[in-house]
Amino acid sequence: ENYHAVLTENRKLFNELQELKGNIRVFCRVRPFLPGQGAPNTVVEYVGEDGELVVTNPTRPGKDGLRQFKFNKVYSPAATQADVFSDIRPLVRSVLDGYNVCIFAYGQTGSGKTYTMTGPDGASEEDWGVNYRALNDLFKISQSRKGNISYEVGVQMVEIYNEQVLDLLSSDNTQKKLGILSTTQQNGLAVPDASMYPVTSTSDVITLMDIGLQNRAVGCTALNERSSRSHSIVTVHVRGKDMKTGSVLYGNLHLVDLAGSERVDRSEVTGDRLREAQHINKSLSSLGDVIFSLASKNAHVPYRNSKLTQILQSSLGGRAKTLMFVQLNPDAISYSESMSTLKFAERVSGVELGAAKTSK
Ligand code: ADP
């Protein structure tokens, strides 16, 4: 009973804070234990339908080790890709109505960021992540509105590695497969120097994602190593012309798979690894700072502090809508990383609940 009273009280607090903080949403997704991972020892004590999450400290059994979090949604390991997308579909669709939207995945390496955003390697349609589903949805709806609004949908894909922006779709190969560069007229929000392609069919979506993923793997020994240290951004630009009035609207969508958020022990790395770690720390903390100052309605928002926040600027703040996926590895071994992920998420969402004063 006591437990429930605390949950109810926290829920009230959360809802009140939600009212204040505008267009930032936080969804938490706990990935399942993977086959062959041994006897599962989970830190996840409780996942509530209202976005409640209780995490337990494996070294402090009992109620003293419990901490409670509250997000807009929490997905248990059983949630499917379709479940997740159905919750964000309205957000994705709002781009066709002229909104700017940013969806990103945050968490340590191995917590399921790429699974959520892209899907597993060689995913079938059922396993498609947010990127495929969003692109597919956008061009399908744009076609269904053809008689009323004439849309152009253009896509860019870049990677930010050590504060450098690399075009993942630039190759003669891409142009052969997808035809000429899109003539989609931009409202000045395109990522500079990155090629843009039109998307008019599901096969375009697949071709484009394939090329982007392949190019991401070029020049590195292991894709996972590289991708865990770079941010990848799929940007969708939409231009819609109202056939009756002639008025034009623009919307854009950034889909971001962030670099792994794990803390690298600085005493143990040097050279390239140290440089990478510093760049990652800087850009992730810049992202946190930007969202935090938006949530606190600060006059100055520090967009210029990293390449990542510069590129995302148009879809962070103002009328833009932002959604963060907080990815968690449920394994007890990851407890301290999971806690730092959850603390980042709390800071971003502006909601801090503290210890779960449970009598459970
Ligand atoms: P990250 O991008 O955070 O480094 P990945 O997306 O590569 O993590 O996920 C790590 C592993 O866990 C991969 O083998 C991935 O397929 C698997 N995985 C992640 N989330 C899920 C999920 N919801 N269901 C099934 N497998 C998952």
TrEMBL record:
Superkingdom of source: Eukaryota
Chain residues that bind ATP: G107, Q108, T109, G110, S111, G112, K113, T114
Kinesin motor domain location: 23-351
Family: Belongs to the TRAFAC class myosin-kinesin ATPase superfamily. Kinesin family.
Protein name: Kinesin-like protein KIN-14G
